[in-house]
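Field log, afternoon session.

UNIT: design team B
ACTIVITY: writing a sequence onto a fixed backbone
BACKBONE:
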């Protein structure tokens, strides 16, 4: 079992994330096999097996120098909004915690909620 598999909940929802190589921006794997800057466009995977298959495909983009540091993260879907489970990934998805005006708003997150979680 890989180190990443030990960190993830056995049953859950997952998305693949990475950083775009040229800009360094956080991106999320979408249904077309491409990368989107917003978590709302991410493909939600309903099993670890599907997640690790998608992660393997994302690693091909690492080899092609499109993205770096591809990872599988846990998410929940609340009222149609994709929300990272862990605070580190929420910060990656939404942007800095020190200034809400610089944050990337995602569906289901208000600026007030971002500030409250900071």
């Amino acid at each position: 079992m890989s180190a990443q598999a030990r960190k993830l909940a056995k049953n859950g929802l997952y998305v693949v994330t990475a950083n775009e190589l040229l800009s360094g921006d956080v991106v999320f794997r979408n249904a077309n096999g491409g990368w989107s800057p917003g978590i709302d466009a991410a493909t939600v995977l309903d099993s670890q097996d599907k997640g690790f298959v998608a992660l393997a495909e994302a690693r091909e983009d690492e080899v092609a120098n499109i993205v770096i540091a591809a990872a599988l993260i846990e998410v929940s879907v609340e009222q149609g909004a994709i929300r990272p489970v862990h605070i580190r990934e929420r910060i990656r998805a939404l942007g800095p915690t020190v200034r809400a005006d610089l944050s990337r708003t995602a569906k289901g997150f208000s600026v007030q909620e971002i500030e409250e979680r900071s």
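LOG NOTE: The chain has a mean pLDDT of 83.
NEXT ACTIVITY: expression trials, pending approval
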